[in-house]
């Protein structure tokens, strides 16, 4: 089956130059018929050009250029639609900042082969973990994850993580056009919507490593929007 990795970018030039060769090496070593879709929100640092140069080298990369910073949720949805239109069967989400190690791609695919519809890369599953985060960042992440899982009764240990694999039929059934959330909330919304459709969710333990270059996109507004999403869906 054809596998697509969707990577949203905004000011990730140096990271994307390091990440894509690592993904390509995993594809080659594991004989994965893989494709990469970089969705760039008009990065002023030249991320788009860096990705286009890599596309000329590897030939299995498509760069989707957007006019402005429109959010990670809409970037993933746009990437999903392009990948599905081109016949990909499995769609993988991955951050551009090297916090998600490409070596876990075969593990995510193996989990789907076991019969699961979605495979989550989990920082909080046994043998999973986080490196180089401050106490405050860990507290925010664990708190958000705990609230989402408990209040929405999600069948996962890591509902807010952005490293995961979907079968294409999941995205068709949950109707992406109805997913309006972004950031942390987008990841939870996707799992919540899939669970309501009775899709089977599995998890793969991963070690998440904080970025060494560039700035985190997590801000107060995103945390507030996440809280609003969880509470509004709890009350329904």
Low-pLDDT ranges = none
CATH-defined topology: Spore Coat Polysaccharide Biosynthesis Protein SpsA, Chain A
**How would you characterize the largest beta sheet?**
7 strands, mixed
Proportion in β-strands: 15-25%
Mean pLDDT: 91
Distance between the termini: 38 Å
Order of helices and strands: EHEHEHEHEEHEHHEEH
| Helicity, as a percent range | 40-55%
* Annotated CATH architecture: Alpha-Beta Complex
Q: Number of helix segments?
A: 8
Biggest sheet strand order reads 3-2-1-4-7-5-8
Give the helix/strand class: alpha/beta
CATH superfamily: Spore Coat Polysaccharide Biosynthesis Protein SpsA, Chain A
Described by the principal axes of the CA atoms, the overall outline is globular
- Assign the CATH class: Alpha Beta
How many strand elements? 9
Number of domains: 1
Cα gyration radius (Å): 17 Å
Topology, element by element:
Layout: E1 3-9, H1 13-29, E2 34-40, H2 47-58, E3 61-65, H3 72-85, E4 90-93, H4 105-113, E5 118-122, E6 129-131, H5 135-152, E7 164-167, H6 168-174, H7 183-196, E8 201-205, E9 207-209, H8 220-234
Parallel strand pairs: 1-2, 1-4, 2-3, 5-8, 6-9
Antiparallel strand pairs: 4-7, 5-7
Helix pairs in contact: 1-2, 5-8, 7-8
């Amino acid at each position: 089956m054809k596998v697509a990795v969707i990577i949203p970018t905004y000011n990730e030039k140096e990271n994307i130059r390091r990440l894509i060769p690592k993904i390509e090496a995993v594809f080659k070593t594991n004989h994965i018929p893989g494709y990469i879709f970089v969705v760039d929100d008009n990065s002023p640092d030249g991320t788009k050009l860096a990705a286009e140069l890599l596309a000329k080298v590897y030939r299995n990369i498509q760069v989707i250029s957007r006019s402005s910073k429109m959010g990670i949720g809409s970037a993933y949805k746009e990437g999903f639609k392009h990948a599905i239109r081109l016949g990909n069967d499995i769609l993988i989400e991955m951050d551009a900042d090297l916090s998600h190690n490409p070596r876990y791609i075969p593990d995510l695919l193996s989990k789907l082969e076991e019969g699961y519809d979605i495979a989550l890369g989990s920082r909080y599953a046994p043998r999973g973990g986080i490196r180089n985060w401050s106490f405050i960042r860990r507290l925010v992440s664990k708190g958000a994850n705990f609230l989402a899982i408990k209040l929405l009764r999600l069948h996962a240990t890591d509902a807010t993580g952005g490293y995961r694999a979907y079968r294409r039929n999941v995205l068709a059934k949950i109707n992406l056009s109805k997913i309006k959330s972004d950031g942390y909330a987008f990841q939870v919304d996707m799992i919540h919507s899939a669970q309501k459709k009775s899709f089977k969710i599995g998890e793969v333990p991963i070690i998440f490593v904080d970025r060494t270059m560039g700035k985190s996109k997590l801000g107060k507004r995103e945390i507030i929007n996440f809280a609003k999403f969880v509470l509004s869906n709890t009350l329904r």
